[in-house]
Specification:
The chain has helices at 8-20, 34-49, 82-91, 109-115, 145-155, 164-176, 188-198, 204-212, 217-228, 245-250, 298-306, 323-336, 338-342; strands spanning 23-28, 53-58, 76-77, 94-98, 119-124, 135-138, 231-233, 238-243, 273-279, 286-292, 309-310, 314-319. The protein is α/β, with parallel strands linked by helices. The protein folds into 2 domains: 8-212, inorganic pyrophosphatase (n-terminal core); 217-342, Diaminopimelate Epimerase, Chain A, domain 1. The strands form 2 sheets. A 6-stranded parallel beta sheet has the order 3-2-1-4-5-6, sandwiched between helices. The protein has a 6-stranded mixed beta sheet with strand order 7-8-9-10-12-11. Helix 2 packs antiparallel against helix 6 and helix 6 runs antiparallel to helix 7 (188-198). The longest helix has 16 residues, at 34-49. The radius of gyration is 20 Å and the shape is globular. The structure holds guanosine-5'-monophosphate and manganese (II) ion.
């Protein structure tokens, strides 16, 4: 049995909306990850099976290793189909905001969502949700939005309507947001849910292989290169890796190739805080990814120095400047947080 995490009144409210709605749009965050696509498609399959006209729209492309997911071909990319997407968002009865807590996380799509007269629901697990939806289902204690989507569907009384395809998407989001159940994954209920998803016929071992073991040769060589240039800061229990645009082109970099890199330095004994700086190929900025183990608040560090945020152990931000400036700022940050890092 699952604990009733989500407030009953919110579930009843959402269920009523769905009964009456015809056109539903599901939106998720920029540079969508496994949980963004997994939760969106998990909900999409459920609503699609209910014969609703439902579309998933994300701000930009998602990595190849998620493209096997059932329904992923129907995901609309806002940066390529803005006009059509704007129409759908404006004409929707419901907009579901999944896996993000603030409008700026959906880039240019934010103004279309804000302007839409649709009823809006947020289903998310990032702390400090903005008040942008009529129903806010925000649970930072839950490790993935996909898990929340599963809970939501079940609590509305539709567990039996979850099909294998939807279950695969939900499982993928739960798996990727916990690094294959290696962090934020001690809740017993996660494994109860996995057992329920297995009852739908999913092959969890195959999903793992499809997500984590389908990279290109050049991606593995890039990983070796990035790691060989890693900076380790033993006095702070920290490490930093970086990737410039020039280096990306040397290794035929494609979107998603550096996914997971930021976690690798955490496998060094006594390294509890890891930073990955990557020059963006689309915007003139450096994308920052931060990860920690234990109590070190990555999200505070990201907010303090890189105009970002996120979870305690996984956060990110952006920096407009050069790689060496970003490194300097990171090192200043280490000094400021030295005490916490050594706790
Ligand atoms: P990643 O390192 O995988 O890009 O992001 C990890 C987490 O950090 C995301 O799930 C999200 O919560 C947060 N995050 C990443 N980039 C940003 C950003 O630019 N701004 C904010 N507020 N959060 C971010
Ligand atoms: Mn997530």
């Amino acid at each position: 049995m699952l604990t009733k995490v989500v407030d009953q009144a919110k579930i009843d409210h959402f269920a009523k909306w769905i009964e009456r709605a015809e056109n539903i749009v599901i939106v998720s965050h920029v540079s969508p990850d496994g949980d963004a696509i997994g939760s969106s498609l998990g909900l999409w399959h459920f609503l699609d099976d209910m014969d609703k006209a439902v579309t998933v729209i994300v701000p930009n492309a998602f990595p190849d290793f998620l493209k096997w997911m059932p329904g992923s071909r129907d995901v609309l990319l806002y940066d390529r189909h803005k006009e059509y997407a704007d129409k759908l968002i404006a004409g929707a009865d419901i907009v579901c905001c999944l896996d993000f807590n603030a409008l700026k996380r959906i880039d240019d799509m934010g103004s279309a969502v804000a302007a839409s007269h649709a009823r809006k629901v947020m289903v998310d697990h990032h702390p400090y949700p903005e008040n942008i939806c009529d129903i806010t289902i925000s649970h930072p204690e839950i490790s993935s939005t996909s898990e929340l989507v599963f809970r939501l569907i079940c609590r509305m009384g539709y567990f039996s309507d979850i099909a294998k395809e939807g279950a695969e998407c939900i499982y993928t989001g739960m798996m990727t947001d916990t690094g294959g159940f290696t962090y934020n994954s001690n809740s017993q209920e996660i494994y109860f849910i996995i057992s329920e998803l297995l009852s739908k016929g999913i092959d969890k071992d195959e999903i793992y292989r499809k997500v984590y073991n389908t990279y290109s040769e050049s991606r593995l060589r890039l990983m070796g290169y990035v790691l060989s240039n890693m900076n380790v800061y033993p006095g702070y229990g920290a490490a930093l890796i970086s990737l410039t645009k020039e280096e990306q082109s040397k290794f035929d970099y494609i979107k998603g190739d550096s996914e997971g890199f930021v976690n690798i330095p955490l496998s060094i004994k006594n390294v509890c805080f890891s930073c990955f700086l990557r020059e963006d190929t689309e915007k003139a900025m450096i994308k920052i990814s931060l990860r920690s183990v234990g109590k070190f608040p990555c999200n505070k560090f990201a907010a303090d120095f890189f105009n970002g945020g996120g979870h305690l152990n996984a956060s990110g931000g952006e920096f407009f400047g050069s790689m060496s400036e970003a490194m300097e700022i990171f090192e200043k940050g280490l000094e400021k947080y030295k005490k916490l890092l050594n706790d």
